[in-house]
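Retro notes (design track)

What went well: tokenization of the new backbones is finally stable.
What didn't: we kept losing track of which sequence belonged to which structure.
Fix going forward: every design gets posted as structure first, then sequence, in one message. First example under the new rule, 173 residues:
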């Protein structure tokens, strides 16, 4: 995916602030991050983008608390020395990529290579808030929050001026 929800990331940051180092480690041990190896041998995470962002932002806030914390990864598949076309088809056929950004179609090449290259989508944030508030339920369907975000995108104007992150954070702390 190319975009993430900052309210969800802030929720995780606040969760980490309240936990001891040992409890953070236990939490992360139970949330391994799946990855796939590309034809060039690069790791691409397939899920837990928000958790990864939460860890990254938390480390920037309190590097001492998160020093020596270990994140567990597991390999889903390997495409080293295979064709890029086979790799991309696998990702698409298995619904392992979401090829939209801010509601617009993108190509696989447009996906970020690093976490800090991901964009913040206010509508994804709003979608997560509605889910967290039990205004809709996760049906365990791939990218359902994106679908809700795109529906909201067509009906509401949400931007940094009307997106009060401080108020949102107070709701979920």
């Amino acid at each position: 995916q190319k975009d993430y929800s900052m309210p969800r990331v802030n929720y995780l940051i606040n969760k980490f602030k309240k936990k001891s180092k040992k409890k953070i480690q236990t939490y992360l041990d139970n949330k391994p991050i799946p990855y796939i190896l590309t034809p060039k041998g690069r790791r691409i995470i397939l899920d837990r983008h928000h958790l990864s962002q939460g860890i990254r932002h938390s480390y920037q806030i309190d590097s001492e608390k998160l020093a020596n914390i270990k994140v567990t990864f597991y390999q889903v598949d390997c495409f080293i020395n295979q064709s890029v076309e086979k790799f991309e088809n696998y990702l698409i056929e298995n619904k392992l990529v979401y090829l939209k950004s801010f509601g617009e179609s993108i190509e696989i090449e447009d996906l970020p290579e690093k976490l800090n290259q991901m964009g913040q989508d206010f509508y994804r944030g709003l979608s997560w808030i509605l889910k967290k508030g039990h205004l809709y339920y996760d049906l365990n369907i791939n990218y359902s929050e994106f679908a809700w975000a795109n529906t909201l995108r067509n009906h509401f104007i949400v931007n940094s001026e009307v997106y009060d992150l401080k108020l949102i954070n107070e709701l979920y702390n």
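Added context from the reviewer: The helical segments are 6-18, 21-29, 49-61, 63-66, 84-93, 122-132, 144-153, 165-171.
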